[in-house]
Design goal:
With 226 residues, this protein is α/β, with parallel strands linked by helices. The chain has one domain: Alpha-Beta Complex (Spore Coat Polysaccharide Biosynthesis Protein SpsA, Chain A), CATH 3.90.550.10. It is 36% helix and 12% strand. The chain has a four-stranded mixed β-sheet with strand order 3-5-4-6. Strands 1-2-7 form a three-stranded mixed β-sheet. The longest helix has 18 residues. The relative contact order is 0.18.
Length: 226
């Protein structure tokens, strides 16, 4: 949402990576209620095979779990990989292709550098645990919570943790991260702390499946353009 100023810096390289992978990969580009020029930017592109562009005009505020769930539900592969709009794909597909784990968490190991959300998860595990928790506040700990629930849901699930270069993520401040959340009274730290508490209570109660009893990752106003 409203991150064209960073997305345009990674678009060409990521698009070429998908093209090079051929039939082995697809890139779902989700416009989650953006009011900047993201829509026009993508429509001007001649999207190569493997790229899909979807837009949902209904969101008026950013919510990480809801946006990630929506993009993941559109994916058709055996693996679903979260790629934030400010990240380059890099050599991540190589690690995914050879992994026998349930999850490939491809991050630098440096907290706060923007790479932590690089989570590739097998589609069957993602669906089994109900995706990202849409009951969370808009930002904070949604990635860590998903990783923990996958492991607790089935103790046989394993996580590969290949290290990536910190340069694969463009730099943001926490203020920029929450700019469009519609939560002017809450900082990123506030939301992260609340989500960690909620996650901890759920895990303690053995509630490993998020969004139980409600539809998630869906929208009546979602439209595919390319």
């Amino acid at each position: 949402m409203n991150r064209l100023w960073q997305f345009e810096q990674v678009y060409e390289q990521n698009a070429q990576t998908i093209v090079d992978l051929g039939h082995r990969a697809e890139w779902i580009i989700l416009n989650y209620g953006s009011t900047d020029d993201l829509h026009q930017f993508i429509l001007r592109k001649d999207l190569p095979i493997g790229l899909q562009y979807w837009r949902d005009i209904s969101p008026t505020a950013w919510h990480a779990s809801k946006a990630k769930n929506m993009a993941h539900r559109l994916g058709t592969g055996d693996w679903l990989a979260n790629l934030d709009a400010d990240n380059l794909i890099g050599d991540w597909p190589t690690h995914i292709a050879k992994s026998k784990a349930a999850v490939v968490h491809h991050w630098s190991g440096i907290q706060g550098d923007g790479t932590y959300g690089r989570i590739a998860i097998r589609a069957k595990q993602f669906k089994a645990v109900g995706g990202y928790d849409e009951g969370f506040m808009p930002m904070g700990h949604q990635d860590g919570d998903l990783l923990q629930r996958v492991q607790y849901y089935d103790l046989k699930n394993t996580i590969d943790t290949p290290q990536c270069d910190t340069a694969l993520a463009l730099k943001n401040t926490k203020e920029q991260a929450v700019e469009h959340c519609g939560m002017g009274w809450a900082s990123w730290e506030d939301m992260d702390a609340e989500n960690r508490l909620m996650s901890g209570r759920n895990l303690a109660a053995c509630r490993f499946v998020a969004n139980a009893g409600r539809e998630w990752g869906l929208s009546q106003t979602l439209e595919r353009f390319r």
